[in-house]
Amino acid sequence: MRISTAQFQRESIIAMLQRQSELSRTQQQVSTGRRILTPADDPAGAARALDLTKAVANFEQYIYNGEQAKLRLGIEESVLEQVGSLLQRVRDLALQANNATNDAQNRRQIGAEVEQLFEQLVQLANSSDGKGEYLFSGVSSRTRPFERDGGEIVFMGDQAERMVQAGPARQLSMSHSGFDVFMKIPNGNGTFVADGLATNQGTGQIVNTTVLDAVSYQPETHRIDFVTNAAGELAYTVTNVTTGDQVIPALPAIVPDDAPTFVPDQAITFNGVSIVLRGEPAPGDAFEVAPSRSQSLFTTVQNVVKTLMEGGDSPSEKAAVHNSLGRALEEIDLGLENILRVRAEVGGRINAIEAEVESNTAAMLDMEQALSAVEDLDYAWALSQLSLQLVGVQAAEQGYVKVQGLSLFKYIR
Fold first, then answer.
1. Superfamily of domain 34-188+293-376
2. pTM score, two decimals?
């Protein structure tokens, strides 16, 4: 077969360029540290690398989500700690004011401090996370959660909890609704609330309220009325206001003649509950015992302020102050219990997020190792290949020099 000089040179150039191209590719692999430079280098490996890269990016996002949720929950826990300390201070002041040695002026001085604590409570409830989002607004995080409506504090957020994607198949809550934290707290002792009527003239004081039998207790309103019985003694009757039934004295006893005599510090029991009163209620005085309902922490503290600021010094007014503050102390305790419950939930969520972040970090490292095995370069092999290809390029170049100098005309004399 005859090969022309032009064809011979063309084939030599092609061979030389191929060697140079292979050398260039290997040099790029060494400089980038990657075995796969284009999908054409390894189609299956490139597809696998793409999937692994996406998985690594997802785990990085999960870890970021977890860290942000942990930061937000940490801020919430700090705010709740301050709320708990504030409520404890209000409790201490209410207990101090409930001392019989205090007069109206002393109570007003204490009330002024409680009023400042109330303003601080509202500020804490409207705390933000430093990014312009309120902690206790629920999903409506840009909405200020608590606003004043006349003399009351109303909740303007929603009751949903913000969720964060903390893992491939796990969402975790990163917030509490302000309604759950500050608004949904039972009043009284948590089961029922006992209080004297505003028209009472005597010095009757509630000193203890207890649920004796939760099974027999019915959430119905009862009223304790003080009367004079047939013996001319101070007595009491109990009526079920909800049904209209006479409870004490039991039928067919006649009211008020057969009403039992009132004995201070002796429990009055009915409907599975016990009420202990002391002092001297006046005939016509009454105490109402009603099922507990939800009451906000704001209302509880406002009631303390109102009692301290408006309470008088007459015996009946002092008794009313004692009853109101005694009820407030029970409600503050329930508020503190609720804050502790929420703080415990926050701690549990932080622990869950930390565990999820740790799991995601381990999974991401596995994905990165798998990705490295697919696309990273074996430097020992690459450097050896580079040396061989460099020799090949040099040989091709020298061969071309020899070939391009060949011509029959050089031998014609």
1. f41 fragment of flagellin, N-terminal domain (1.20.1330.10)
2. 0.81
